[in-house]
Predict the 3D structure of the following.
Amino acid sequence: MIRSLPLLALLLGPVALAQEAPGDDAASPPVDEGADEPVRTPDDGLQRHREPFQLLADRAIGTTSTPVEFNWRTSTVHLGGTGTLQAELNNFNTLRGGGIVRVPSTSILWEFGLSWSQVWDTPSSRQLAFTPYRQPGRPSRIELDVTAAVPLAEGIVTTAPRWLPAMQLVFNGYLGLRYRLYPTGFAGLKTGQAVGALLSPTLRTEELDNLEKVRPDAMQVDPERYGLIFGLGNDVYLRPGLFVSPRAFFSLPVFAPASQTDLLWWGEATVAVGVAL
Amino acid sequence: MRRRAAGLLCLLAAVGPSCGKVPLVAVNAQFLVADAAWFAEEHTLFLFHQVEAEQGLGDPSVIEITYTTDSERVDWTPLSDLTMVHTHLPIDCGTHSLCGSASIEVPEEPRDVGIRLRYHRDGELALEPQIAFNVVGPGPPHTRRSLLVYGVFNETNDQIQWRARHQFPTVRNEQASELGLRRDVWVADPVVADNLTGFGTNPYGYGFDCPLPQVPGLEQSEVSTDARAVFHPDPLPAHAGPSPYVCGQATVTDAIGTFTTGAVAQKNPEVRPAFPLLRSTLRDATPLPFFLGPCDRVISEEHEAMQRQRLQLGDTPTTCTDRWDSPTFVDELTVLFRDAAEAARPAGNDMVLTIALHQDEAGVADVVEQALARLLPNERHRSSPRLAGAFVLDSTIRGLSREALEPVTLWCPSTLPIDDLPDVSSRSCAILPDNFDLQLGPLSVATLPILPSRDQYLDYIDTYSVNRAGEVNDLAYRTPEFPTTADHVDLGEFGVVTFLNGEQINATPNDAFSYCEGDALQPFVFRTDLLQDPRVLDILGEDCTDAGLPPEVCGAAAFGLLPLEFLPDWHDAFGETTYELGVFWEFPFLLQMEYQVAQAGALTAFGFSVPFGVNETAEAFYGAETWSADSFDLSELLTQCDRFCDHPTFDGAGVYHVTDPFDVTYRRTCYLPDYPQPGDGGFPLDP
């Protein structure tokens, strides 16, 4: 840790300067109050980049202290299970369960997820089925996720109750692509049609027709096949490599004009539990 | 900081409405078909429905009906809860549609008949359309029953296909099948029948009283189906061939039980080509070559070489024309031509005079015309071997000046007349007076017609060389061989009609003809005994133009000839028994020329020209293209029906037009029927 501090000071110096407050006297050059312009010293050019050592140490304390509890960056792969409560802002219930594989790198944690999303009626949707109205939704499906987790803050935290060991906490920002596969959607399609459909942002008419047989009665099947999601969440690591990762995801409907989806701003809460190897 | 806060507020304002709950969407269901009909004779209420919705209708959606009679009231009841009289197949109309049919036993006339879509079998909301309800009262079976049975035959009229046809007030036959309705039908005891009447009001003959079974009978087994058609597996016996009808006992089911009545199968009109092939034996005529030109002087060696090459004259000696203005020159030339023809005649082939006229004096061409005019018209109508005509390649763009030569002589090069209709010679030999020549700075591009004038030729080769002027590879004259019995009717300026070898169509007054009209004018005419009657000719002469017929038709009618397309109507009106077939032609031979023509160019700089070009092989026909084939296929042009001609028949799509008998419908319409055959399936096209 000690050896890396000078290096961090050099790397983070310019960043710190950009975030510097205008009224920070410690970083300001000396000013002659009796003159119109400040008195320039010979090393005035480097003075702009100087930071107090204590400030640099505070800023890097989280990253540089990772080896203290668990260094997730040095792990090879993370395996885990996930559970999700999805809120698509309609009248159908959706729960999701599956698994993830995470591959860490220096600055990004790559996640690959495979889940089953189970959808079923609520009392409200059952009542809706009695009427000449339908509500957009998605039937039960397989979801494939490719997500990049970018650590935004991290450090060692103490826990309560106190008999629990200190934990490594990483606060992540997420950006990912979610791809939906409907098991009965491709029934009756020729191989060429099915391959062509895989890349289309919307479901084909044949797929929508197939899903009519499995959708809840009050549902109008939403045609979106894949879309972007973003989110925030924490990774809490225990010393042996166990991790718990609660996170919240939201849709990012940048593909909506092409996918013709009616489900624009939905969200979900996910908890992932696993082990880093 | 304030700017960022304002931007965030704007973003929230834009996104905020979208963050709300997902809205509900109306399914927009509507009935496309909501029809009902009650048949008093069958005690059956039929219902047909088709509902479409934008968002799809699921299994929970149900169709319900209600009706009231004098003795009961049936409240809204799902169709699936009712007992059906007939078979109704579940129909998959697509994910956004519900459709089907139903048949319910209702002994008394219903009223207040309703049909509706309940969106969900457990819900209360429903869509109730305006229903089309009809009552069909008692009456004859062909109009008052929901299904009639009739028969049709295969192409050879020896195998019956019994058909069922739905007849509902508002639902078509095929639509009823598509909505799942199936009826059980069986036909038994077929017998032949010769005299059945009453097809006028009952074109299918359903409900006719069939005659008693005859001895020997047809001995055919009973056939049944729940589709709309079934072929009887056994062919009719040979002795049933002359009978126009087969009558069977058709049984159908209804709410009361079964209903049996007579059903009739009408044989197809027996049609064949009236005259399948009109042969006109074509022969290669023998060219009689002549090169006419001055012997005492030279006009142009290059031009003479071109004329000899074009007409394939080779070393044919020059017939001197230096004394063309002598009073005896025409006689001498005539004798020369005649001697050549008589010398070649024993070989047995028709002949064509092939003359290159190398001249630069006005009057020479006229002298040659005079000689030809003395010889050719007299040979025009002779039987083979004969001097069929002449082909003259002149030195100037002149054309023919004698009408007598127009039907027998090609005089090239020529121009199209401005005021008169062009004759065959003018049409064949016409060229532009000047060569096509495009100048693009030092580059020039030009083409030369294969039969040019001397001025055109010399001007062309001066720039582009003789090698780029093209050449004739082959020259052949084809003439029809007229037998000694050939009869020619000269129509003057229009041409000639030749009755080649006594070709005639024989018919009985009850026969009927069909002429298949096309875009091209067909060169066939007919004549009959009645057409030769002077009184008829007078009537034709007076009324022809008033009837708006073209001049060539009226011209032929004045000679007792009519185009073949009038034969069906003529026979229907007068029922004559013999029609002689003739061929109309304008010119006695066809000149077929294969040649190479050059797309030539030249690059000129500093007084020098470098020619270049691309040679193309081409083929040209001069004269009458009538003689391009030695037979004329009339098999589809004129067809003749000699039995059952007043029966309905099939069209090209296989649809049976029961109200369109052959003898009336197809006189001026192509008859290309598509008959049913075993293996076609049980649902023929029967709108």
